[in-house]
Design brief:
Elements lengths: L1 E4 L7 H8 L6 H22 L12 E6 L4 E6 L6 H10 L5 H8 L19 E9 L7 E6 L4 E7 L5 E8 L9 H11 L7 E5 L31 H11 L8 E7 L5 E7 L13 E5 L2 E4 L14 E5 L9 H6 L1 H24 L1 H6 L1 H14 L1 H7 L5 E2 L6 E2 L1 H8 L10 E6 L6 H9 L4 E3 L5 H11 L3 E5 L5 H4 L12 H10 L7 E8 L8 E4 L2 H12 L12 E8 L4 H7 L3 H18 L5 H14 L1
Helix pairs in contact: 8-11, 10-11, 10-14, 19-20
The protein binds adenosine-5'-triphosphate (ATP).
Adenosine-5'-triphosphate binds next to helix 2 and helix 3.
InterPro entries: HATPase_C_sf, HSP90_C, Hsp90_fam, Hsp90_N, Ribosomal_Su5_D2-typ_SF
Keywords: ATP-binding, Chaperone, Cytoplasm, Nucleotide-binding, Stress response
Organism: Deminuibacter soli
Length: about 625
Amino acid sequence: MQKGQIRVQTENIFPIIKKFLYSDHEIFVRELVSNAVDATQKLKTLSSIGEAKGELGELRIDVIVDAKTKTLSIVDRGVGMTAEEVDKYINQVAFSGAEEFLDKYKDANIIGHFGLGFYSSFMVSDKVEIFTKSFRENTKGVFWSCDGSPEFELYEIDKEDRGTRIVMHINEESQEFLEPGRIRGILEKFCRFLPVAIYFKDAGEEVKTDEVVEEKPINNTNPIWVKKPSELTADDYQQFYRELYPYGETPLFWIHLNVDYPFNLTGILYFPKIKQSYEIQKDKIQLYSNQVFVTDEVKDIVPEFLMLLHGVIDSPDIPLNVSRSYLQGDPNVKKINAHITKKVADKLEEIFRNDRKSFEEKWESLGLFVKYGMMTDDKFLDKANKFLVMEDAAGGTFYTLEEYKAATEALQKNKDGKTVILYTTDPIQQDAYIKAAQGKGYKVIKAETLIDAAFINNMEMKWEGVSFTRVDADIVDNLIDKQEHAASVLSADEETRLKELFQFDAPELRMTVEVKGLSAETAPVVATRPEFMRRMKDMGAAGGGMTAFYATMPDEVTLTVNGNHKIYQSLLQEADQAKAGKQIRNLADLALLSQGLLKGASLTNFINRSVELM
Ligand SMILES: Nc1ncnc2c1ncn2[C@@H]1O[C@H](COP(=O)(O)OP(=O)(O)OP(=O)(O)O)[C@@H](O)[C@H]1O
């Protein structure tokens, strides 16, 4: 028998482990089961190259919880260890550099992500024992035990079967890890797709002898992301989606990632159906390293705009044991990021080209990813410019940017030669304006979703030769500023007088009045909301910052008085000044009403005044 001290520089390494790993105790299960998987995989490899002799038998891992003896055991049938190996790997190697590591990362919250490996078992144990026997011929079994002090025991034992049994004597504070439900839950979280079958057993559970209980492993050892895309059907992908998200709706489509150079990465990303932007859930992508679950916080690894996707990413090349700031600067992570973005863009373009109809049908959900991506990632923007579509206000027709430009070439270029994209944020409320624009042959597109306001601002900076104007931003004749003027039939005096009549108090509005010669069929007064101020106000309302103060400002509105409307001929002749004033006020209110700007007392006044005039 050998007795000795574990050779780490710090005497009190165990209290440190316990303290720092406090928040993430459950990861010891992942660490130990991963070791058992590694030992099993190693044996398979050695056997395949003829270094391990004989039958391997059923290769499985058993996790056994026993409340009576207060132990949790993890049993594998892998390579096992000889006495020398236990001394080398457990006593010496496992902790070299640990002191330095702890010093460096004392303050960071990342230690929970650091694979402390086998020693993490001491977070929850008073004593840990190893019973192991190597696959090598003519070796004896080995017993190792340590109670959490740096002293250990190591001696040979008789052990029949190959492999390793780790027995943890769970400590007083960690009794939760003796609850079968708790352990099962942890296994399902971390070990769900590990490549070796894992069986969970509650030693305290009574088994009736005449009953054949069918054993089912915890995990799916062969998840579809490790298979070749050519071997898989649409059904396989959808079934796997349901396995990941039992309550999720059928996804729109998916992308199978498979890279082996210059880094290793596999995975499947699903585009979920999104009906409302507020349904968006981030943190739905799970990150694995060789099928071991690592985290569902994929920030920094997946581009921000793709955080909305679901699915799994598996890469042994992502440095998991280091801090976030390091991760951001990591060249591999940057490459992975760029690769995922490219793959997603390629896939979207492929669907757009091959099946535009289905692409357009999915646009309601897809548009959100695409627009978000175009705003935040210039590489993606370049590609997406080809497949971003804009839906006509009439519904059912979609234009790409190029198609819209071509279709509006003749009518919608302004004096600077820019294409003016007319949009509506509310086809019902802005119906009159849309009809007027369409009447002139203009194309109006829908921009109704939460993201559109920001998207429009952003694209105006990024797209050359394009500007956006909301369909009610000006009277229809001025929507596309071509610097053409129609003459008014009124004399200069009459215009001035008319302008005066329209000067009245409207405290909640900031009003500008202009008299213009519009066509005789156009309404006598048109209320419009200047694009710039309205955007600022919308942005202020949506989210604070610099623009927040705009939200508190009065609504800005322009009243364009149509000097060519025949109603003014009689109004300007009206002898009863008070009556004329009221009629003028009513015309203005009607225009404001169409913009949804007539509210509260102003609305009541309008109704009373109308009755009076009648
Ligand atoms: N179940 C096992 N069967 C055989 N060897 C094992 C087993 N568990 C641990 N070992 C040996 O002990 C070594 C140290 O294990 P430990 O978990 O501390 O670190 P690691 O697995 O090498 O690295 P990591 O920090 O990523 O877990 C392993 O490399 C392996 O050689």
